[in-house]
Specification:
Layout (H helix, E strand, L loop, with lengths): L1 E4 L2 E4 L10 H17 L8 H7 L4 H4 L1 H13 L3 H8 L1 H21 L3 H16 L1 H12 L5 H29 L4 H4 L1 H15 L4 H12 L6 H20 L9 H23 L13 H32 L3 H27 L4 H19 L8 H25 L9 H39 L7 H12 L6 H37 L1 H4 L9 H5 L2
Antiparallel strand pairs: 1-2
Helix pairs in contact: 1-8, 1-9, 1-11, 4-7, 4-13, 5-6, 5-19, 6-7, 6-8, 6-11, 8-9, 8-19, 9-16, 9-18, 13-14, 13-19, 15-16, 15-18, 15-19, 15-21, 16-18, 17-18, 17-21, 19-21, 20-21
Length: about 525
C-alpha cells in the first residue's frame, strides 16, 4: 500500500504483509506444544496428592489423566477440518486460549468432578495444538529446511514426556499440585501474544477458506459423532482396562463393543463421503501409511518404557519418585543436543530412510540392553541405555516427520497432520495399556515357575529357608513363617524383575520388525511429484 507525504510516495507495510524469521515462528508455536505434551504426564506423580485433597481414592483420581487423553483423542482427527473452517491462526490461538484458561480453572478446582471437567476442556484445547503446529512448520519452512524445523518440534514431543513426571513431582513436593496447572498460564499467555504477532495464514489456506465459504455450510455430523464416540470409548478402555480386569468387567466389554462398532462404521462412512471430516484416503499414499505404522509401533514402545523404567526403579530398587525422574532426565537433555545435528544432516541431503532405519536399530539395541539389567545395577547402568534409546528415537522421528508429508499435497497438510498425530497418540496409549497388562500377567507366570522350585527336595531352597529362619531366631512356628515370608518376598521381587526384562526384550523385537518397512518408502525428491505436491 502506498501513500504520499509531502509529495513523496512511500510504501506502508501492513502487519499481515510483514515477514518474520521462520525460526521465530517455529519457537513461538513449539512453546505451546511443549506445554501441552508436558501436561500428558506432569500430573502422574501428583495423583496421590490430588486424591487426598479432593477426598477421593487413587482409582477415582486417575480420571484426571483419562479425561485429558479422551479429549485429546477426539479433537486430534478433527483439527484439519476445524483449521479449514476457522483459519489456522485463529484455530491455533483458540486452542492456546482454551488450554491456558482451562489450566487456570484446573488449579482452582475444588472438587474432583470439577477438576475432571476442566481437564476435558484442557485436553480439547491442547489436542488441536500438535497437528496445527506441524502444519505451520511444514508451510513456514522450505522443503530443504524442514528437517531443522521438525528437529525443534521433536524436542518438544520427546523431551516434555521425560521431564513431565520429574517436574510434576518436584512442584507437588515443594509447593502444591495446583501449581502444575498454574505453570501453564504465563507460558500460554506469552504464546498467545507471540502467535498474534508473528503468525499468519498462507495464501492457499485463505483461498481454501474463501472457496468453502462460497458453498453452503456442510458438516459431517454422522462422521463426527462416530469418531468422537469410538475414540472416546477406546481411550477409556485402554486407560481403565487393567484396573477393571479387562473383559471380566461388563463396563469394559460394553465400551469395547461400542468402540469397535463405531470406528468400523466411521471408516466405512468416511471413505464414502466426498468431504469427510477425517480424510482416511491419505493412507493410500505409501510414505504416509508406512510412516504411520512405524510411528505407532515406536511410540508404543517408547512411552511404555517411559512408564516401566521409573516404576521398576521405585518398586524394586527403592528409588524415590524424584530420584527415578532424575535418572531418566539426562536422556531428554541429550535429545536437545541431538536434534539440531539430525536436522542439519537432513538439510545436507542425507537419505531420510537410512536415518530412520539406523534410528530404529539403535532404539532396538537399547531395549535389548535394558533387558539385561538386574537389581544390583548402578544409576549409570540405567541412564545409559535410556539415553541410547531416546537418541535412536530422535534419529528416527525427525526424518519420519519430514518424509511422511513429502508426497501429501500442501492443501491436505492440515488434515494429514491431525491424522498422523492421532496415530502417534493412540500408539502411546495402546503401548502403555498393553504393558501394564502384560507386566501383571508375566509376574504371575514367573512367580508360578519360581515357586515350583521352592520344595524340600531342592537343597538350595532348604538352605535358603534355614538361613532365613536364623534371622528370626529359633526355627519355631513363628520363625518358620517369617522365613517363608522372606523367601516369598524374594520370589515376588525376582518374578517382577524377570517380567520387566521380558517386556524390554519384546520392545526390541517390535522395533526390529518395523525396520523392513523403511525400504518400501519412496525417497524424497525421487520423483517430480514430490516437487509439485509442495
Amino acid at each position: 500500500m502506498t501513500a504520499a507525504i509531502g509529495g513523496i510516495p512511500i510504501t506502508l507495510e501492513r502487519d499481515e504483509d510483514r515477514e518474520f524469521n521462520p525460526w521465530i515462528i517455529a519457537l513461538t508455536v513449539t512453546l505451546s506444544t511443549f506445554m501441552e505434551v508436558l501436561d500428558t504426564s506432569i500430573a502422574n506423580l501428583s495423583l496421590p496428592h490430588i486424591a487426598g485433597s479432593m477426598a477421593a481414592t487413587i482409582d477415582e483420581a486417575t480420571w484426571v489423566l483419562t479425561s485429558y487423553l479422551v479429549a485429546n483423542a477426539v479433537i486430534l482427527p478433527l483439527s484439519g477440518w476445524l483449521t479449514l473452517l476457522m483459519g489456522r491462526k485463529r484455530f491455533n490461538m483458540t486452542c492456546v486460549l482454551v488450554f491456558t484458561l482451562s489450566s487456570a480453572l484446573c488449579g482452582m478446582a475444588t472438587s474432583l468432578p470439577m477438576l475432571i471437567c476442566f481437564r476435558i476442556l484442557q485436553g480439547i484445547g491442547g489436542g488441536g495444538l500438535q497437528p496445527s503446529v506441524q502444519a505451520i512448520l511444514l508451510d513456514t519452512f522450505p522443503v530443504a529446511k524442514r528437517g531443522m524445523a521438525m528437529a525443534v518440534y521433536t524436542i518438544a514431543v520427546l523431551v516434555a514426556p521425560v521431564l513431565g513426571p520429574t517436574l510434576g513431582g518436584w512442584i507437588t513436593d515443594s509447593y502444591s499440585w495446583r501449581w502444575i496447572f498454574y505453570l501453564n498460564v504465563p507460558v500460554g499467555a506469552m504464546a498467545l501474544l507471540l502467535t498474534q504477532i508473528v503468525l499468519r495464514d498462507p495464501p492457499y489456506l485463505i483461498a481454501q477458506r474463501a472457496a468453502r465459504r462460497a458453498k453452503p455450510f456442510h458438516l459431517d455430523f454422522v462422521g463426527l459423532g462416530l469418531i468422537a464416540i469410538g475414540l472416546a470409548s477406546l481411550e477409556i478402555v485402554l486407560d481403565k482396562g487393567q484396573e477393571s480386569d479387562w473383559f471380566s468387567s461388563q463396563f469394559i466389554v460394553t465400551l469395547s463393543l461400542i468402540a469397535v462398532s463405531a470406528l468400523i462404521v466411521a471408516v466405512i462412512w468416511e471413505l464414502r463421503q466426498a468431504s469427510p471430516i477425517v480424510n482416511l484416503r491419505h493412507f493410500a499414499e505409501r510414505n504416509f501409511m508406512l510412516s504411520s505404522i512405524i510411528c505407532f509401533a515406536v511410540y508404543a514402545t517408547l512411552y511404555a518404557s517411559t512408564v516401566l523404567l521409573p516404576q521398576m526403579l521405585q518398586t524394586l530398587m527403592g528409588y524415590s519418585a524424584t530420584k527415578a525422574g532424575l535418572v531418566l532426565s539426562p536422556a531428554g537433555l541429550v535429545t536437545m543436543l541431538e536434534m539440531p545435528i539430525i536436522g542439519w544432516l537432513l538439510s545436507r541431503g542425507v537419505d531420510a530412510r537410512k536415518m530412520i532405519a539406523l534410528g530404529l536399530l539403535i532404539a532396538a539395541a537399547a531395549a535389548a540392553w535394558m533387558s539385561r539389567l538386574n537389581l544390583q545395577v548402578s544409576q549409570a547402568d540405567v541412564i545409559w541405555p535410556r539415553i541410547v534409546q531416546v537418541l535412536g528415537a530422535g534419529m528416527m522421528f525427525v526424518p519420519i516427520n519430514t518424509i511422511a508429508y513429502r508426497f501429501i499435497p500442501k492443501t491436505e497438510t492440515n488434515n494429514a497432520s491431525g491424522l498422523f498425530s492421532l496415530i502417534r497418540n493412540e500408539g502411546s496409549s495402546i503401548g502403555v495399556a498393553l504393558v501394564t497388562t502384560l507386566l501383571a500377567r508375566h509376574i504371575q507366570v514367573h512367580q508360578a515357575g519360581l515357586v515350583g522350585h521352592i520344595t524340600m527336595l531342592n537343597p538350595l531352597a532348604t538352605d535358603m529357608l534355614h538361613q532365613a529362619s536364623g534371622a528370626f531366631g529359633p526355627a519355631d512356628l513363628t520363625g518358620g513363617r517369617g522365613a517363608l515370608a522372606m523367601v516369598y518376598a524374594l520370589v515376588q521381587q525376582q518374578a517382577a524383575i524377570l517380567s520387566y526384562l521380558d517386556l524390554f526384550q519384546m520392545f526390541a523385537w517390535i522395533t526390529v520388525l518395523v525396520v523392513p518397512l523403511v525400504f518400501f518408502m519412496r525417497r524424497p525428491g525421487a520423483s517430480k511429484d514430490a516437487l509439485s505436491a509442495h
